[in-house]
Amino acid sequence: xKEPLKITFLGTGxxxxxxxxxxxxxxxxxxxxxxxxLRVSIMISWEGYNYVVDCGPDFRQQMLRHRVxxxxxxxxxxxxxxxxxxxxxxxxFFFRQGDIPIFxxxxxxxxxxxxxxxxxxxxxxxxxxxxxxxxxxxxxRPFKIGDIAAIPIEANHNRIQVFGFRLLDFTYLTDVKTxxxxxxxxxxxxxVLVVNALREEPHHSHFNLEEALGFIDDIxxxxxxxxxISHLLGFHEEVEKKLPDGVHLAYxxxxxxx
Length: 258
Ligand SMILES: [Zn+2]
Hints:
RibonucZ/Hydroxyglut_hydro; Metallo-B-lactamas; Phosphoribosyl 1,2-cyclic phosphate phosphodiesterase; binds zinc ion; alpha/beta; Metallo-beta-lactamase, Chain A; 21% helix
């Protein structure tokens, strides 16, 4: 590949999104567009390829916002609804392109099969239902997306296993609470790292800000971006000022090149 990877932050919010429905929290009422966060997802684009990581309930809006006309595949981090609930909205891509490749842990594929049985059905398919081509991701097996390798990185979201992905000099991790040393080895040397930072208070299944910054300090990328952000972390503008050099809060519609 000759072009850099273009990373589009489609969503940078935690599971309920920001604003939270019905909330009067000042961050939920903020007029700064960077404080409006759809459910977490990125699109990775290069040379005509578009892959997304996760496909949450805001997927349709995210595809429309960025006028995406082609989708080459979906990489899933884990099965939680804020990462998977938009799967039905691959329909327009399916109608144009045929079965849409998905890349997921066996457990995640099984969960999707239960929740979206009509997408996976082999007989008596409902006309208009989309279909997927399932690719099972295993911890130590890099796989190909387009013409590059995706390296799965295993981490823990409390008791749930999650996958992050390294693509060349870019690494994306979300919903991480702990990660083993052997998996960190796969990340060292990455130039750009995206990692989740929920809020300042500790949480049972997510890095808080301090844990995320500690992890970034360990990996030492050239640049790092925080995502999967709760309104409780505070206003974008104020939090951004407090971050160390080279570390930024991601926000929806931010585009970076790696
Ligand atoms: Zn999540």
